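Reviewers of the previous submission asked for a worked example of the structure-prediction workflow described in the proposal, so we include one complete record here. The input consisted solely of the amino acid sequence. No template or homolog information was supplied to the procedure at any stage.
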Amino acid sequence: MRGAFLTFVIALSGGAACAAGLKDSFDSDRLNTANWTTQQILSRQYQFQKPGRCGSAAIDIVTTDGDNGLECEDDCQRAELRTTKKTWPVFGDEVWYGFSFKITGDVPSTGSARSVIGQWKGPGDGSPMIAQRFDNGVFHITVQDNNVRRVVARAEGDPDASLSAQALLGNLHRDERTVNAINSLQSLDLFTKTQPDLSQQFFKQNLMDSLGPEAQPSDSQQLSQALGLGDPALVGQFSALSFVAEPGKYIGRADIDIETEDNRSLPDPRKDWVDMVYRIKPGRTDNEYGPRRPGEIDIWANGQKIVSVRGNIGATLRTNDPRPLVGPYFKFGTYRLRIPGTFHFQFDEFSQASTRAGLGQICAAR
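From that input alone, the workflow returned the following structure tokens.
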């Protein structure tokens, strides 16, 4: 039986090879459909912006008030391009990615809309194993361990403080009561940050004092008890993570080790082009087939190492639900709840390779 299963898995991955090299500078003013699929974007949702990051043009994904897009459930907006299947690697192989991006237009500095602006999905993934997100004015990168999410890098604030808040959330059991409590804590924290004068009018000072890293234990204890949270330290430290969408997804243990480089933050893509490099080698120690070892992710931004991530990344592969061992595939663009205004996601100088040396050199002499 085991031999038959292994034969089946090999057959599932038989069409894949080592990561196919892919480079696209988007300078031709025409989408190369040999590289990108359009099943989740309408033709009116992309155009070409001149000049680009380095060359004559960049692709510009545009989301407007009336957009829903293709394959978009609920009241959401989707406009994403995905790499074609011929470029997908064998799942578990090391793959490098490089690209530049920036965001312009109506970019809300407050409000969380579950905004994903780039993602990698592997076999069995519901939420993306790795995602670039932008919520409450903060660009951040998340990694998934099955249904538990972690911020591994962020553009503003103190990355190490975010890790401390996530460690405390990891001690909680995810149920409806706890999720509601964390949602309430997030609402309180964001309201006091975005509406300080109004908060002073309606909230007692000890409630205000209980939020944030400088909170006194007695104040945090009172709010923690009111919300039904066990550890009062979470009330004060959660402020470093309150920018995320769906904070309930951060509750519970994640088998992910996050090592920041000198507590570095990500650049702000609202200000200028951001040049990203990712090294991704998927894996999990609890996979029943496929790569049975810790996954590995390393991330650079604008030439600086930002973070290293090791551990159980993505969804566990189960023998009772066999899937092709290909991926992850990469998507870029916009996927979010509906937001008013016109949003531009500009993307350029993409490359994918099995080694860093194989990546295109951003803004190399042409």
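The first strand starts at residue 22 and ends at 24. We consider this example representative of the routine output the project will generate in years two and three.
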